[in-house]
Amino acid sequence: MKNYARTELHLHLDGSLNIQWLYNKSLERKTIEPNTSFQDFYNTLFSINQLEHKESLKKFDITCDCLQYYEDLFEASYLLACRLDDMGIYYAEIRFASQQHCKKGLSQLEALQAVVDGAQKAMEEREIRIGIINCLMHKGDSALFNDKENRETIKVTKELLSKGVVGIDLAGYENNCDFNEYAYLYEIIHKENIPCTIHAGEMGNGENVLKALAMKPDRIGHGVNCIQDEKYLQAVIDTRIPLEVCVSSNVKRSNNYAAHPIRQLLERGVKVTINSDNMMFSNTSNFNEHDRLRMLGVSDETLKQCTLNAIEASFASEDLKQILKNKIEKEAIN
């Protein structure tokens, strides 16, 4: 039995922290009461109803509150990259939203640079390769609610593109308003030639996948609700758009892995990539995701193809892609 879990394309920094580190940092930064026990902190962090997407997203407020200083973002990025390397990951794209880390005086550029610097230190010490994805955010009841912040996110992403940053995303609660309201931001992104992905089709209406496709992203984060309608699914198949599928994150507390549509997507020939999304909140890793799918009957050959899909869909250089493909093929032989 081989394990091809070597590439992560959809991994949120603030959802993949070491929980003990987060607890200590929260005490240090006084974002929680000084007499808070670890057990109480844990219970608070995981008491939010994870079956309700809007409520589930509130847990990220807890993590973001203690990631408001350069040194904390640097350390979080560094430690996550080292942890991924320890697991055996060859390449990962770590995403976060720079606009969420400006409450204590950091600019978006400074916040982004901190995460880049942390990943760079890990790469100097380890073999893993890391790319940073910066996220636009769905907020409020209109895209205009944080238009200024989103435009700044595009600006700083462009400034650090190819300097540790590899792309841009749109994250948050996708049902806040009409998904099409964010299309103008992707027009700017394309003019700036920034590689892009977009969260769509995770929460509720699968039609958001069609709206996302119209924005011409390179990939779609999640996208699994395209299964709601044959025309949505066929559009994904026809465009050959890679989906960043995160099974554990989507099944949440229901724990019903068999009900997740990934097998149907694979059977229809969708370009599936397998990802963790939030290692801390979903208590998972890419290796765990592969193991779960293997138990559901997904073959090693299919899992290998999902990894090759991820390498090809990544925002890595062509040279690095070839190196990664060679490593996977070598593992297949040995």
Structure notes:
This protein has a single domain, classed as Metal-dependent hydrolases (TIM Barrel, Alpha-Beta Barrel), CATH 3.20.20. Strands 1-2-3-4 form a four-stranded parallel beta sheet, sandwiched between helices. Strands 5-6-7-8 form a four-stranded parallel beta sheet. Helix 6 runs parallel beside helix 7 (147-160) and helix 9 (207-214) runs parallel beside helix 10. The chain has 15 helices and eight strands. 47% of the residues lie in helices and 12% in strands. With 334 residues, it is α/β, with parallel strands linked by helices.
Helix content: 40-55%
- The CATH class assignment is Alpha Beta
**Please, how many helices?**
15
Distance between the termini: 11 Å
The chain-level mean pLDDT equals: 94
**Tally of distinct domains:** 1
List the helices and strands and how they pair.
Layout: E1 7-12, H1 19-28, H2 38-46, H3 53-56, H4 59-65, H5 70-87, E2 91-96, H6 108-125, E3 129-138, H7 147-160, E4 165-172, H8 183-191, E5 199-200, H9 207-214, E6 220-222, H10 230-239, E7 243-245, H11 247-251, H12 262-267, E8 272-274, H13 286-295, H14 300-313, H15 318-333
Helix pairs in contact: 5-6, 6-7, 9-10, 14-15
